[in-house]
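Quick question, first post here. What does this chain look like in 3D?
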Amino acid sequence: MSESVTSTPRQVAESMYEALLHSDREALAAITSPEIRIHVTNDLAYGGEYTGLPGFAALFKNTFDLIDSRIEIERFFDAGADTVVAVGRTRGTGRATGTPFDSAIVHVLTVKDDLLVGFDAFVEDQPITAAISATAAQN
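> Answer (accepted):
Ran it through. C-alpha cells below.
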C-alpha cells in the first residue's frame, strides 16, 4: 500500500498557480482531475465550458493564442471544506494588437481528494476584449 500525501485545498490552488507561472504541464496534470470541469466568463473570446485535461489544454491554447498575460493572485480565501477563492489581476497585451490590459479576476477552485475538480474563472472582460480587438481608448 502506498503512502498518501494529503494537501489542503489551498495548497492545491497555490500549486496550480505555481505550475502556471512556470508553464509546468506535468505539475499541473499531477494536481488536476482527469474529469475537471472548467468555466470561464462567457463574454471573453476564449470563454465557455471546458472539460477534462484536454479541456484545460484547450483553454490555455485558446487564451494564449489571443493574449500574452500573467496572473497575479493578491489573496486566497478558504471558502468551505473543498473550495478556495483566488482574487487578483491578470495583466498583459493582446497578441495581435500589442494593446495592454489590466483586468480583475476571481477564480473559484474546487478540490477533492487532493485534485482540482472545478475551476470557475470570473474575469473583468472589457479590458481584455479591448486589447484583443485594439478598441481600447487612446490616452
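The CA atoms of residues 89 and 107 lie 10 Å apart.
Strands lie at 32-40, 48-51, 67-78, 83-94, 100-112, 115-123.
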